[in-house]
Each structure stands twice: as structure tokens, then as C-alpha cells.
Amino acid sequence: MDLKGTPVFHGYRMPAEWEPHSMCWIGWPERLDNWRDNAIHGQRAFVEVATAISKFEPVTVCASAAQWANARSQLPKSVRVIEMSLNDSWLRDSGPTFVVKESKSTSDSEAKVAGIDWEFNSYGGVDGGCYIDWSFDNLLASKILDVERVPKFKHSMILEGGSIHVDGEGTCLTTEECLLNKNRNPHMSKEEIEDELKAYLGVKKIVWLPRGLYGDEDTNGHIDNMCCFVKPGVVLLAWTDDESDPQYERSIEAYSVLSSATDAKGRKFEIIKLHIPGPLCMTAEEEAGLVQVGEAKARCVDSVLAASYINFYIANGAIITPQFGDQKWDDEAVRVLSHTFPDHQIVRIKSARDILLGGGNVHCITQQQPAA
Ligand code: KQY
Fold first, then answer.
1. Could you identify the atom of ligand 1 that is nearest to the CA of residue 161?
2. Which of 43, 47, 167, 365 gives the lowest tally of CB atoms within 10 Å of its CB?
3. At a CB cut-off of 8 Å and minimum separation 6, what does 219 contact?
4. CB neighbours of residue 344 within 10 Å
5. Is the Cβ–Cβ distance between 128 and 220 less than 8 Å?
């Protein structure tokens, strides 16, 4: 604390996702220009995810006043549902980034868990953002931290949680395509962005992949569709062997960067390939279920969907993984994840396509709160 009793940000680090959680936060989809057919399919998919995670850790779902009763009636009793105004439902990005401080003394009265409230601009603001009013989503992190009575550190940098992954031991993975995009923090240099990530996430090294997943235009290439840590020194990378697939050169490029990089502890990366499904595109029937009111980025028939098995969530003891109805690659993803997370139960989310149609997946709709 400083002399006025305001918390001072010092000594915190963002834990890896596999470290113990006290809660998982999820939003509730409702906007008709992003979630087709009155959002019924999207809501069913969010219920599948929340229900699956609630078997492993407490879950809180945030729903608008208009949707609270509907959300409450669809979700199991074990899931807490609270009222919160939202513009959309991607708490990975609009929620807080939780950080922890390991105390060296038992008499240390400072908080063990805190949260960073980054600035949020709907994935690019007026320059290619996903929706034109993001005022509620920009308040979400602050409200969640108040609900939890967790110290809050406001940061003026625009950052979405899906654009960073950490190993908990000093390394952060991200993409240049997103963080250096002129629609995020055009006044900041790469070095200045690195300095803020180091200071606030408690990391020592940033590994920059040039680009994210092909087709991930909503987020400008978030890392959480492209590459993630399995444990320190080991990463999973979205992959295809098909040279005619536009994803091919992105995966090769990322593989080459990762192969010649080391992490904060000087380790070379072990890179495990996780094949993408598809290609998957939006159908005419799916497009017809949307109400285009001009407030959200248009989603059009035949547009490529940014489908990737990298977008899974690590719960306490479980991996909650999207499945896309592509049996060969769905099963292969489960095989690879079972092998890479032998101590976790692998849970398949069969309705993941309905989240994908909104522009993200399981990881994008979840936000873990670490255990104190
Ligand atoms: O991938 C994510 N982290 C979120 C996707 C948001 C899409 C909004 N239409």
C-alpha cells in the first residue's frame, strides 16, 4: 500500500492456466447480430461449457438484466449467475487478468490475488473492431474485481486476455499481428509494450510469433487460437501439413520462430503440433439466423471460421476442448491432449461450432481466477 492506502503494483505474476483456480468466469451471449436464431444455439453451447467446467471448479456466469432469468433457467444450480451489463460475452478478453503474489512471510497482510483492468476497445475500436459500443465490456474487469473484493490495477494499455499466454515461470507468448496492430496501441513501440507486459504479468521474456491463425480476423490473430503452453518449455502449435492451406505458411513461420527461441529460463521449446480441423465456413442457413443491424462486424456466408483445437480451457484437473464435428481431427486433438495432459480428464465440447460462429471458442469465453 502507498501512504494513501492505495495498493501498489509490485511483486505480482500471472500464473499459468494449469495452476489451481478458485473460479472460472463466463459471460452470457445475447446479441442478435453475432449469435444466430435469437442466440439459442450460442447459449446452449455456453451452458455446455459452463456445466463441464463446474464439475471441476466453481463457475460464475455474468448475464445482462434482460437475460438473467433465461441464463439462470438454463444453467445448473451449481453455477452462480450474476447480473452484469455486457456488450458481448468474451470474458477472456474483457475480463480482468488475475495475478498472484507469493508471500515470503506469514505476516504479510498484502493481497495474494489481484487483477489487472486493461483498456478494452472491442478488438480494434473504430478501426476494424467487432462492435461499435464496448462501454459495458470496458467496465467488466473492474466490476468483477469489485465483486470479488480483489485489488484492482488499472492499466491504460489496450489488451485482451486472449492475446497473451504465460508459462508462470517468466515467459509470455504473443503475436505481432495483434499486439503491434495499429488499432490497439499505435503510440507504443514494441519495446514499450514488452516493458508493460514484463512489469504487469511478472514475466522476463516475451516470445513474439509473427501471426495468429488464418481467418482469425475478429481478433487480429490472438495467440490463444495459435499456440499455448502445456508446461514450461513445451508448447502446442496449430498445425497443418497441407501446403495449399493458407494456415500452412503461418504454422511454418511460427514453428521456425519457436525452434530458434528460448524461454525466460533459457530452455529451448519442445513444439507439439495440433492439427487444425476443416476448413470450416459459415453456411447460408447460419448466416440467415443473424440479425444484421450494422452494429457488429458482419458475419457472411462462406467466410472462413477460425477453428483451432488450441482454444481449450485448462480447468482444475480437466481440459475442456472444442470439437467441430470433423471426426478425424476431433479425435486426433483428444489423442494429443490426452498425451500432453496425462493428469487431466479431457472433456469434449460438442457444440463448439456454435461458439466458433460468434468468432472465438472455449478459451475465449472463459477467464480463470487463481486460487489464493
Ligand atoms: O477469440 C477471442 N478471444 C474472442 C473472439 C471475439 C470475437 C468477437 N466477435
1. 3
2. 47
3. 93, 123, 160, 162, 163, 178, 212, 225, 306, 359, 360
4. 18
5. yes
* Residues listed for the chain: 372
Which helix (H) or strand (E) is 201 found in, with range?
A: helix 190-201
Find the radius of gyration of the CA atoms of the chain. 19
What is the residue extent of each domain of the chain? Answer: 7-370
Tell me if the pTM is above 0.90: yes
pLDDT digits (tens, 9 = 90+) for 270-285: 999 999 998 999 999 9
- State the distance between the two ends of the chain, measured CA to CA, in whole angstroms: 19
How many angstroms separate the CA atoms of 9 and 29, rounded?
Answer: 33
Q: May I ask the CATH architecture of the domain 7-370?
A: 5-stranded Propeller (3.75)
Give me ligand 1 centre to Cα 360, in Å.
Answer: 4
57 Cα–ligand 1 center, Å: 23
Number of other residues whose CB lies within 10 A of the CB of residue 208: 18
Cβ neighbours of residue 25 closer than 8 Å, sequence gap 6 or more = 59, 60, 62, 91, 95, 144, 366, 367, 368, 369
